Inverse folding.
């Protein structure tokens, strides 16, 4: 379906963590100083590895404070910087609140991360009137601001990629369009680093080829791009020309189960690193299963390589389980069948299926006592974490290294995770 029958809105909360904390402190706690008006950041635990800038205010940007840099460094740049801790429960609730507003107007909402989503409007002009698309977007933006106390940017187009690119134009509290006929004028002059999926390493390669802008990439020789960047080069060149996102971005195998995925901070090139990430994901999945008093009998793993190739496999369990260790064992078995041990992996995910409540266990001679003990231990750890925080108990293997012990979902240092690519209207995977 083509315009004007279909419009796609990309809605992105401006400086989400900072804005959500600021709005709560002003409207609920009655604070007189709005964090958004002063140099301020949301920062993780300075005593641990999470001591980084998670979000920053507009005034903080004037001091060249960057998301992801150490809090210590940020304070050196701005000694009077206000630092507040993250409130992850608040952020989940704020995310759900703005998604619910989108669902009032669209029956097809796809949440990409905790602070951004696409809303698809089929037959828009028949529903809302001819020529009302931009006005409607402004009204939607203002409703979110007035109802929830924070601002969003809305990008409008006829495909997912262009709407997301439009949403990243000037901020905050703006509405922008980027239709295919506007690509050359509005998108091509932008630095190539601003193109979706073009990271630092790819930017460096493109610069070495004399490619500085998105337009340079769009008009570059295809064979030259393919020769230097292989399949990813072909994909991003299509993006530069206004092509749409790859289908795998919106695909989940286990929509009727519980799952998590993450993009690794560095390419996965060893089995050891992969299993460390799988264990972290399984920790979160297992905790959610037990919280909802359900068990699963299918475990699946998916990977996306550095060349954006997506693959997945699944395994049937002998008996339904909610035991983290058991889920992890089967996830490792699936992963071993899935990966060739040569191709670097960029994204990895664990998903489960065949969810059951009040499911009994079919024991074999060897695992009966083992899994009984683990089940009891898992529930005990859950109670401790619920009372004292999820970091109160963690496996010794996570004390060193750069892998958080409970990944996916609302990761403490990331905004994306389990919410990526979930159709909110039809999903049965728990978003948290």
């Amino acid at each position: 379906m083509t315009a004007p029958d279909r419009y796609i809105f990309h809605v992105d909360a401006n400086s989400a963590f900072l804005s959500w904390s600021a709005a709560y402190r002003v409207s609920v706690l009655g604070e007189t100083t709005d964090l958004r008006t002063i140099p301020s950041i949301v920062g993780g635990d300075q005593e641990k590895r999470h001591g980084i800038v998670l979000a920053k205010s507009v005034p903080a940007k004037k001091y060249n404070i960057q998301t992801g840099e150490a809090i210590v460094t940020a304070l050196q740049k701005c000694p009077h910087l206000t630092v507040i801790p993250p409130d992850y429960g608040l952020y989940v609730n704020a995310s759900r609140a703005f998604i619910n507003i989108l669902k009032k107007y669209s029956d097809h909402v796809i949440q990409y991360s905790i602070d951004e989503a696409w809303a698809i409007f089929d037959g828009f002009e028949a529903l809302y009137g001819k020529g009302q698309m931009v006005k409607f977007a402004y009204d939607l933006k203002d409703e979110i601001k007035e109802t929830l106390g924070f601002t969003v940017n809305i990008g409008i187009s006829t495909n997912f990629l262009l709407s997301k690119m439009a949403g990243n134009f000037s901020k905050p509290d703006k509405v922008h369009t980027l239709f295919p006929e506007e690509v050359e004028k509005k998108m091509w002059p932008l630095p190539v680093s601003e193109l979706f999926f073009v990271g630092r390493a790819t930017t460096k390669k493109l610069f070495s080829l004399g490619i500085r802008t998105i337009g340079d990439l769009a008009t570059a020789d295809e064979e030259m791009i393919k020769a230097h960047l292989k399949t990813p080069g072909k994909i991003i060149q299509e993006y530069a020309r206004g092509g749409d996102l790859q289908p795998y971005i919106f695909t989940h195998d286990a929509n009727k189960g519980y799952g998590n995925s993450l993009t690794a901070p560095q390419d996965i090139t060893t089995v050891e690193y992969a299993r460390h990430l799988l264990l972290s994901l399984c920790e979160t999945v297992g905790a959610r299963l037990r919280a909802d008093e359900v068990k699963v009998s299918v475990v699946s793993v998916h990977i996306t390589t550095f060349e954006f190739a997506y693959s997945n496999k699944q395994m049937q369990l002998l008996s339904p389980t909610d035991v983290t260790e058991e889920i992890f064992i089967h996830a490792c078995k699936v992963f071993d069948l899935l990966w060739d041990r040569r191709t670097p992996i960029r994204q990895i995910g664990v998903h489960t299926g065949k969810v059951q409540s009040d499911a009994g266990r079919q024991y074999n001679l060897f695992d009966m006592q083992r899994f009984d003990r683990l089940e009891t231990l898992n529930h005990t750890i859950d109670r401790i974490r619920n009372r004292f925080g999820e970091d109160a108990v963690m496996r010794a293997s996570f004390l060193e290294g750069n892998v958080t012990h409970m990944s996916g979902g609302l990761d403490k240092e990331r905004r994306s995770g389990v919410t990526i690519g979930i159709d909110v209207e039809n999903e049965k995977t728990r978003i948290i």
About this structure: The longest strand covers residues 294-305. DSSP finds 14 helices and 14 strands in the chain. The first helix runs from residue 16 to 27.
